[in-house]
Amino acid sequence: MAAYLIADTQLTDPEAYEEYKRKARPLAEQHGGEYVVRGGDMTLKESELWSPSRLVVVRFPSVEKARAFYESPEYQQALGISRRSARRTVVIVEGV
Fold first, then answer.
1. CA dihedral in degrees (39, 45, 49, 55; nearest 10)?
2. DSSP string, 4-27
3. By three-state DSSP, how is residue 72 classified?
4. Which of 32, 43, 52, 85 sits at a 20 to 30 Å CA gap from 10?
5. CATH architecture of 3-40+54-94
């Protein structure tokens, strides 16, 4: 069953975040990930619980593949760049 990694990102250093994006994408793809949303225009319809800033959605073949990507040593190195250049909320959710 597919899984989705969903990240809401508020950039604090957009230039540095570009380096994170260059490193993260090939790592996600190595784990079977496919970017289906990466930033882009949003139309917020309801925000009682959450008001997203910038959304990224990556589809993986399974929760296990998504977790393997996120927990991989290579991604953890790239994640350090993200943590210095953005504030984020990230979830992995099982899909249909």
1. -10
2. EEEEEEEES-HHHHHHHHHHHHHH
3. coil
4. 32
5. 2-Layer Sandwich (3.30)
